Amino acid sequence: MIAEIAPSDDIRETVRARYAQAAQAISSGCCGGNEELYRDGVFGASLYGEDADETVQGSLGCGVPTEVADLAEGETVLDLGSGTGGDVLISARRVGETGKVYGLDMTDEMLEQARANAERAGVQNVEFLKGYLEEIPLPDDSVDVALSNCVINLAADKRVVIREAARVLRPGGRVAFSDVIADPAMPDDVRADMQQWTGCIAGALSAGDFERFLSEAGFRDISVTPTHDVHEYAQAAIIRATLAS
Question: What is the dotted CATH code of the domain comprising 8-243?
Answer without folding.
Answer: 3.40.50.150
